[in-house]
Amino acid sequence: MITTEVTFDELSALMKQAAGITVDPRELKEAAESPFDSFGLDSLGLLGIVGELENRYGQSLPPDSERCRTPREFLNLVNSTLTAGA
């Protein structure tokens, strides 16, 4: 059962791991409504993050996960999907 949510810290680490983009988690949280491309993350990088989260949690994310435009939108979708499937 999944009891924790994916956080801005974890998203920041995944951006580094999956796309090679370093973003301070505090900056990511403060600019959570900014588009991913303002951080240098493109759709392919976001797809890598989706794949990593699916592997980590053993659960598929919705097909539109990689179309999220902002960190807040992405985390809301991921966390609601993970907790609904728990």
From TrEMBL:
InterPro entries, sorted: ACP-like_sf (IPR036736), PP-bd_ACP (IPR009081), Ppantetheine_attach_site (IPR006162)
Domain of life: Bacteria
Domain Carrier residue range list: 5-86
Protein name per UniProt: Acyl carrier protein
Pfam families: PP-binding
UniProt KW keywords: Phosphopantetheine, Phosphoprotein
Organism: Streptomyces pilosus
PROSITE patterns, alphabetized: CARRIER, PHOSPHOPANTETHEINE
SUPFAM superfamilies in UniProt: ACP-like
